[in-house]
Design a protein that fits this description.
The chain is built from 14 helices and no strands. The chain is mainly alpha-helical. The chain starts with a helix and ends in an 8-residue tail after the last helix.
Length: 370
């Protein structure tokens, strides 16, 4: 029964991300595809959830308080997003009635054409490949090391004690201080409050819902990247991503990044490796071609701001990618572009702030006592 509930929660989660991502695309005038909308909604969700969660964590509030407050705010956000989407549809209908020949599609993908039978066949094969990879991620899940026990322990302990990061995830002993290494990211507390609300085990939610979601988002980023590289060619994009899926499933070596995606997909660091960093690279690729497009920089800022809430591993890796991009841009252009430097600095700011807080914590200058 709980696995059935997990399926429903997974579907609702994807729908929430899509609604948030589509509304954000309309408001910010982002020319993005539907697969990218789901990814954008994922990052927007955690960027906003982090604000509420961190305030609750560091004031040592109960987990149910976080769940109640975020549940209300999320309902308001989804209602507002639905209004934005419906209003956009109404405007499109009115414009189409006034001028039927007007190109009113907001998310028009360059180079696209009408799909033929081959396109539909490749799309079906692509969807089947993604579903097979999701199934493999569940069936091949056999990573039961210390990380597994600790992260799941943190969530289940939080649900049982109705607290957040006050008890050690492995021993269940009350801590003396809150460990910033884990508390600065709200990723696992998102699963905890859903578990407390629904009664579904945090273990099942994290392994199956978040595990399959990691695979789905990773392929969404890969497909969006392929569509950008191939100028909207669905056939080539579907073929490329399908091949990567087959390699991921068949290359059964634990030390590869592919098996990390399948075997440890429930962990925040797997999201960092397979969703956050590829998304950053994808946006940097687009920015490299259109460095003056502020909308791309705004999307990159959102991903950067949400990277640490998703995984603390992003606190250094995301800034490293941004610095490399700015340095490469400077070397190729042979001039210092103040606009690029300034916008990159803004995108670096959230991670720098998190890094500064974490550094102060390691030096004993910022201690939150339990």
């Amino acid at each position: 029964m709980q696995l059935l509930f997990c399926t429903g929660i997974f579907i609702l989660t994807v729908m929430v991300y899509y609604v948030l991502g589509r509304a954000a695309a309309i408001l910010c005038r982002w020319d993005i595809r539907r697969t990218e909308m789901v990814c954008v909604g994922f990052f927007l969700y955690f960027a906003l959830f982090q604000i509420v969660a961190e305030a609750m964590i560091f004031t040592k509030q109960k987990l149910h308080v976080l769940g109640n407050i975020w549940g209300i705010l999320l309902a308001v956000l989804l209602a507002a997003a639905a209004v934005v989407i419906l209003y956009k549809k109404r405007v499109d209908r009115r414009l189409f009635a006034e001028n039927p020949y007007r190109d009113m599609v907001l998310y028009d993908e360059p180079g696209e054409r009408r799909m033929d039978r081959a396109d539909y066949l490749l799309t079906a094969l692509f969807v089947c490949a993604v579903l097979c990879e999701c199934a493999s991620a569940v069936l091949l899940q056999r990573s039961i090391g210390w990380d597994f026990a600790y992260y799941i322990g943190n969530m289940t302990t939080s649900v049982v004690t109705d607290t957040m990061y006050l008890y050690d995830g492995s021993s269940g002993v009350l801590r003396d201080t809150i460990e910033l290494r884990y508390a600065l990211s709200s990723f696992y507390m998102n699963t905890a409050w859903i578990s407390q609300l629904t009664g579904v085990s945090a273990l099942l939610l994290q392994k199956y819902v978040m595990g399959v979601l990691c695979v789905l988002l990773a392929n969404g980023v890969a497909y969006s990247f392929a569509m950008e590289v191939f100028k909207g060619d669905r056939k080539r994009s579907a073929i490329l991503v399908t091949i990567t899926i087959l390699l991921t499933i068949c290359w059964d070596v634990y030390d590869t990044s592919a098996q990390f995606l399948l075997l440890r997909n429930y962990e925040a660091k797997a999201y960092c490796a397979n969703v956050v960093l590829p998304m950053v690279v994808f946006l940097l690729y687009r920015i490299w071609q259109q460095a003056s497009d502020r909308k791309l920089w705004a999307e990159l800022f959102l991903v950067s701001a949400a990277s640490v809430p998703v995984s603390m591993s992003s606190v250094v890796l995301v800034p490293a990618l941004l610095v490399l991009m700015v340095a490469a841009h400077f070397l190729t252009e042979r001039r210092w572009n103040r606009a690029v430097f300034g916008r990159a600095a803004c995108c670096l700011l959230p991670n720098i702030c998190y890094l500064a807080v974490y550094f102060l914590g390691t030096r004993g200058l910022l201690v939150v006592e339990v």
